[in-house]
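User: Can you recover a sequence for this backbone? Please restate the input before giving your answer.

Assistant: Of course. Working from this structure:
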């Protein structure tokens, strides 16, 4: 009985100590300040802060990069792919957490012939961890504009509308119709 009582005192002390000191507060959202038209000079006025993080709901739109022999750089796991209004959204997970990571969708600029006759664009997701050796599992959804693929299709096949299969390594093919 004495051990049970002692354990209860220690547990209560730990809980009280953790709850009372150093309790984490949620960071307050950044507030965008609008300039005051009544102020005559710009001295002492800070520029408005633009919130470009994931709180807006979407990552910035990047172009598919046409490059010779694109190769993967740092490990990344593709969780899901989808095309919405000419934009390829790639949900990924990766290890890190200490530095900002960047993603590029590389394409060699050529089309291969698919089994059903549909042109295939072979893509490679290039992940640059910028030497981040932290081990937290992070998630991101980089977005890529498919206009370079559409434009190359128009140029090669001289058609306004069409379809191209997008192939990424170890992923099911995704059909892009425009």
């Amino acid at each position: 009985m004495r051990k049970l009582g002692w354990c209860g005192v220690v547990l209560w002390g730990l809980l009280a100590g953790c709850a009372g000191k150093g309790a984490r507060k949620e960071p307050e959202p950044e507030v965008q300040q609008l300039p005051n038209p009544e102020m005559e000079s710009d001295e002492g006025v800070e520029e408005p802060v633009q919130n470009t993080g994931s709180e807006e709901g979407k990552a910035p739109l990047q172009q598919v990069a046409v490059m010779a022999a694109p190769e993967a750089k740092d490990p990344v796991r593709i969780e899901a792919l989808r095309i919405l209004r000419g934009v390829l959204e790639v949900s990924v997970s990766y290890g890190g957490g200490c530095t900002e990571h960047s993603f590029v969708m590389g394409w060699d600029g050529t089309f291969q012939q698919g089994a059903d006759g549909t042109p295939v664009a072979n893509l490679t997701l290039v992940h640059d961890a910028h030497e981040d050796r932290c081990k937290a599992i992070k998630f991101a959804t980089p977005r890529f504009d498919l206009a370079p693929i559409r434009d190359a299709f128009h140029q090669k096949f001289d058609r306004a509308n069409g379809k191209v299969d997008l192939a990424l390594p170890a992923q099911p093919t995704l059909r892009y119709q425009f």
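That completes the design. Residues 2-20 form the longest helix (19 residues).
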